[in-house]
What we know:
3 domains, five-stranded mixed beta sheet, 33 helices, 7 strands
Amino acid sequence: MIMFNILERQRILVDEARLSLPPLQLKFIVHLAALALLFFAVAALGYAVNGYQFAFSFINHQSAAIPEWLLHNLTVFGDGAFVLALVLLFANTRVQVHWVVFWTAILGAIVSNGLKELFDAPRPPAVLSHDAFNLFGKAYKHYSFPSGHTLTGFLLATIGYYYSPKLWQKLGILLIGVLVGLSRVWLGVHWPIDALVGAGLGLLVGCAALWIGHRWQSGINPVMHRVILFLLVIAALLLLVQKNDYRLALPLLYVTAILGLWKTLRNYLLPIPDKSLEPITENKIKIPLINRLAKSEWLFGIFLVVITLYRILVILQPHLSLFYDEAYYYHWSLNPDFGYYSKPPMVAWCIMLSTALFGDGVVAIKLMASLLYGATSVVLFQIARRYGNATQGLLAGTVFLCIPMIGFNSEFITTDAPLLFFWALALYFALAALEHNRLQSWLWLGVCTGLGMLSKYTMGAFPLAVFAFMLFETKQRQRLLSPGPWLAALVAGLIFGLNIYWNFQHNWIAAQHTQEISQTSGKLFNFGSLLEFLASQFLIFGPVSSWILVSSVYKCRSKPATVPEPFDGFYRLLLWVTGVILFAIGTQAFLSRAFPNWAGPWMIGGTLLMVFGWQAAYDKAQLYKRLSYGFAFNLILLSMVHHWLQLLQWMDITPTAKNDPYHRVAGWPELGAESRAFLDKYPNAKLASDSRDLLAYIGYYGRTGSYDFARWNPNANNVRDYYDLTVNFRNWTGDANQSYVFVSKAPLGTEITAHFNQAETLGSVSTQVYANETMKLYFTLLQGFNGYE
C-alpha cells in the first residue's frame, strides 16, 4: 500500500511537471552570467594589484566583531548536503527543480573537486602565522582554490534566483551566496580570490545545469525522479548522522533535515488528506496524520496521561536536580506553618504532601508541579465542555498543557503550580455562580479564592476582576445586592486571614520582601521593561497560540454575533479575568520591573478566550492547521530544553556555563554528597552559613530531612530569608556548648570567626562542573557564639 502511494503520487507529479514545462528564461541566465563575469573581473583585478592574498586581512579582521555562531550558520549554506536538504524542504514536489538540482550537483562536484586537485593551493593557515589572522575551527591547509562552499552557495543562489517569483526573493538568495563567500574569508579558511572565483563558477555551473535541465527533458520521468528523490533523502539523513565541522550550526542543519524528511513523508507516504472530512466537530476531532475522527474526551485523556508521565520521567535526568528555591521550599515544608517569609504556605504544603507519600527525593519534591498543571488542564477541559462542547474542552486542555511556560515549569515546583490550579477552579465556580447565583457556587468560589491567596498573592487580581465585572456589567450588577458575592469574599478572607495573621506576627515581613523584589523605589516609567514584559508573554504562551488569541479577540469585537455566549457576559468575564492581571503586572513592569511568570494566571482566561472566540477569525480547517503547527513547535522546543545536555553531547559541543541553561543547579548534588564527610563527623553541630543558597543546597544534599541550621546575618533590621527569620545565630548567643559547621564559598575571615570561642578549619570540597569551571566550598568548625557585637 505504501509503495502504491509512492508510485501513484510520483507519477502524478511527474506528469504534471512534463505538461507544465516552461521555456528557458534566457534573461535570467544573462543576469547570472553577467554577475559571474563581474566576480571573475574583480578576482583578476585583485590578483593583479595585490596577488593571491588580495584583501584577505581587511575582510578577515572584520570577523572579530561577528559572533562565531553566526559565522557557522552562514557558511553551512555552502555545504552540499545542507543545500540538498533545503531543496527537499522548500521544493519537495517540484520535479523540474529536482531534475535541475541533480545536474547542478554533478557539474558542481566535477568542477570544484577537479580544480582543487589541479591547483592544490595553500590555505591561509598554511601560509600565515596563527596570530596574524582570525581562524575559527579546524586549520585546513590544502585545496584552497576555488572555494567549494562558495561555489555550492552560488549554485543554490542560481537555482533560487531563477525559480523565485519575486524580486526581493531573488536578491535575498543572491545575498546569501555573497555571505557564504565572505564567511569563508571571515573564518580564515579561504582567500578572497578563492571565494570570488568560486562564486563565478557556481553561477556559470548553475546556468549550465538550467540549460541541460530544460534541454534534456526526457530525464523527467518517474524512474529518474525516484533516484533523485532517494538522493535528496540520503542527503538529509547524512545531516543527522554525520557531524559537521561547524558545530554551532548543527541545530539549523538538524531542523532543516527533519522538516525536509517530514515533508517527504507527508507528500509521498501519508494518506492524502480527505478535504471533505471536517477536522473539528462538536464531539470529535481529526487524529493528526490520519483521516479519522476520534472522540475528544478520549484524545484529551490520552494526551494528558502521556504528557504528564513524560514530564515526570524528565525529572529523573541527573541535570534536573533541585534549584535552590526548591531546596529552600523543601525546608519550609519541614516546618508546617501559615506563612514563610516571602510567600504564602501552599507550595510548602504541596511539598509536604508529596514527600510524605513518596519520600524526600528530588522527584517527590518536584512531583506536584506536573500533577497540578495536569489538574489545571482538567479544570479547563471541564469549563470549556460545560459551556461549549467536548472538542472545545479538548482544545482548552491541550492548549494549556502545550504552553511553553507550563511545560518548562512542570519540572520545577514553584508557587505558580498551585496558583494556576486554584485560579482555574475559582473561575469554574465564578462562572457557575454568575450563571445560576447559587450560594453553593459562591461558597466554593470563596474557598478556591482563599486557597489561591494562600498560594501566591497574585491571586488578589482574581476577585478584583470578578467584582469589577459585576460592577460594570449592567445585567450582572444586581448580583452585588445578593448575599452570594459577599459570602465568597468572607470565606476567602477567612482563609487568607491565616496568612495575614502570620504576617502580623512577623512584622509584615512578606510585604517588605515584595517591595524589595519589585524595586518600586527605583526608576519610574520603564518603557523598555514594559515592552520586554509584553514580548515575554507572547513567547511564554507560545507564538502561534498568542497570534490565534490576539486575532480571535480582535475579530470578536467586530463580529460579536459569531461568538455565542452560554450566558450574558460570559465572554466579557473572561476578558476581565485575563485583562486585570495583565494590566496589574504590566503596570508594575512599567513602573519598576516584573518577571514573565508573575502574570501567568492570565493564560487561564486567555486559553478560554481563544477556545470560545476562534470562530470569529478562522474556519475549522485554518484553526486545526495553525494549532497543529503551534503544538508541534511548542512541544519540540520544550523537548529540546528538557534534553539540552543530551543535544549538546550529540552535537559534540562541550557544556559550559554559557550554553547550559541548567548551570545554576550543576554540581550541587556532588558537593552536597562530599560535604557529608564533615557533617556526619559532627552530628550535633548546626549547619551554618551566611548564604541562603548554601544552606538550601548543602542542607538538602548534605542533611536531607533536617532543619538544624544557623544563618549568619548581623543586621537585625534586614531579614533576608526564612532561615534568617527563624534560625539566625543570635538565637544561640552565649551558648558556649553549641557547635556549628560553617560552609562558605571562601575561607572564613576574622570578621566572622572572632565572634566565636573556637574556630577550626576542617577543609574544603570541590567538583569540576565544566571543563573550565570548578566549584569549591570551605568548611569551618565553630563553637560558642558570643553575639554580633
